[in-house]
Amino acid sequence: MLISSSNSPNGGIQLSGGGGGGRFWWEVVPVAPSSRTTLAFTAVAGIAVFAALLYTTSRGRLKSPWSRRKRKHALTPRQWKSLFTPDGKLRDGGVKFLKKVRSGGIDPSIRTEVWPFLLGVYDLNSTSEEREIIRIQKRKEYENFRRQCRRLRKHSNDCSKGTSERSCIEDSGSLAEDSDYSSYEDVVSARESLSSEERSPDVEDSDDPSSALLEGYDASGQTTNTDASALNTESSDSESSEDPEVIQASSSSEGREENDLDVPLKENTSPSRTELHPNQCAGENFATWQRIIRVDAVRANAEWIPYSPSQATVSELRARHAADAVGLKDYDSLEPCRIFHAARLVAILEAYAVYDPEIGYCQGMSDLLSPIIAVVTEDHEAFWCFVGFMRKARHNFRLDEVGIRRQLSIVSKIIKCKDSHLYRHLEKLQAEDCFFVYRMVVVLFRRELTFEQTICLWEVMWADQAAIRAGIGKSAWSRVRQRAPPTEDLLLYAIAASVLQKRKLIIEKYSSMDEILRECNSMSGHLDVWKLLDDAHNLVVNLHDKIEAPFR
């Protein structure tokens, strides 16, 4: 734009647009000299209006913190250290820390240090001294869970060798009688959050669960009426003092279906929980979980190897020792690093089954743990990070599917609010329940994204959840992400965004839910995680007030 001035007979000036002699869309006619101040002000205002219109046209909508991803950088080791006070406490309650993680993720070299803060192992306001005390206590609690696993595994092996059913039940009961109650109290205190804060008041145990959650899974292994006293005992015999886990467990050679998390089974294949004796649950269900855990652990993919050099180069001797410690067999076809990885999966997943017997183990949980143990090298630290992760994700593995159905409902509502045309098309196909994204919900995009992309998405999601746990509300977060509040369900917005990105294809070419399901499954390796987060955030900005708050 060119502003030109020329003398005129009446002493005024004229403003016009330049370029090829043509005039621009506005022009100021000659005026008296006394009006020049007003004229200048008008010219500046016109320029401002033009700039605003240009900005609106080019931008079009409120941008998220992930916009222009290439300009963002991950949280570096230097920045991480600068966030702490001299006594090891995060400055400003962790707001700046969470903002940085949300905008660019975390440098791989410091993930082991940062993740415990994101996953609630350490409070954002804790000092370094307090964290050291917590670390020691958490390690003892994890070791106690492992002792319980060894005792239950030994009991299971004894029963499998021909011990009578009655004797097995009596032996299971003796686990409770031999309990060290001081240790038991520590275990109970470690799980208080599951029994009070994290469990939804409207999600009660059902005497008639709807169906097995995952195809190929033996639903009879799940129970909610497990004898807690039997599972939370610490062995009082010489076994409890063993340092390495050397007790062998029989590994099942039973065949299983390939992992298939695409859609749930809709038949009711599990028995009523009231049909099982409590002590049978303690023994038989744990034995079932053990078999399934081992099969899934051995089948775990090797995508993590490039991201964990120290574990990728583990010796064969160490790998086999780790496998023997947890009774892992049938691994001869695996290289040492994968044997070691599988053994760690078994140890931590068994401990989690003892920690949270209501959920125990279900297919898909190994997908969630695998990236964690690839990053966190100490088992006890990886275990508590996984516990923090499962505070939210555990609802995905309930037999009654209440958690899954609630999340699918939220995805459906997001799509309905954002794109009514697409939603009407889904209704015509009887796919408005969004069961075609079932796998995405269960394993949190683990199958649709690469290993590094999965971690990036999870870190941003964890940062949101950490903000909510810390009570960081909208006022504080207005400095972090414009006018969008932190949300427990960023994942669901991301899932809805991935579907909306395919809206044209779905509307124009697909005429059944099966076709949409195949399209969603084919997204694997073809998604841009930062574009996905950008779109998800924009949905949060515009729809969070309309979407019903999910349960926690």
Polypeptide structure, described:
Residues 155-169 have a biased composition (Basic and acidic residues). The protein is mainly alpha-helical and 552 residues long. Among the domains are: 71-78 and 108-159 and 281-392, no CATH class; 402-548, Ypt/Rab-GAP domain of gyp1p, domain 3 (Cyclin A, domain 1, Orthogonal Bundle), CATH 1.10.472.80. The protein has helices spanning 36-59, 77-82, 95-104, 111-118, 128-160, 165-177, 181-190, 192-195, 228-231, 278-299, 309-312, 316-325, 336-355, 365-375, 379-393, 402-418, 420-428, 438-442, 451-469, 474-477, 490-500, 503-509, 513-521, 529-543. The longest helix is centred in the N-terminal third of the chain and has 33 residues, at 128-160. It is globular and about 95 Å long.
Descriptors:
disordered N terminus, 552 residues
Number of contiguous helices: 24
In what range is the share of β-strand residues? under 5%
Mean pLDDT: 74
* Terminal-residue CA separation: 56 Å
Topology, number of strands? 0
Described by strand count, sense and barrel closure, the largest sheet is: none
Envelope shape = globular
**Order of secondary-structure elements:** HHHHHHHHHHHHHHHHHHHHHHHH
Which segments are poorly predicted (pLDDT under 50) over 5 or more consecutive residues?
1-29, 55-71, 172-259, 263-281, 478-482
Roughly what percent helix? Answer: 40-55%
Secondary structural class: mainly alpha
C-alpha-based Rg, rounded: 29 Å
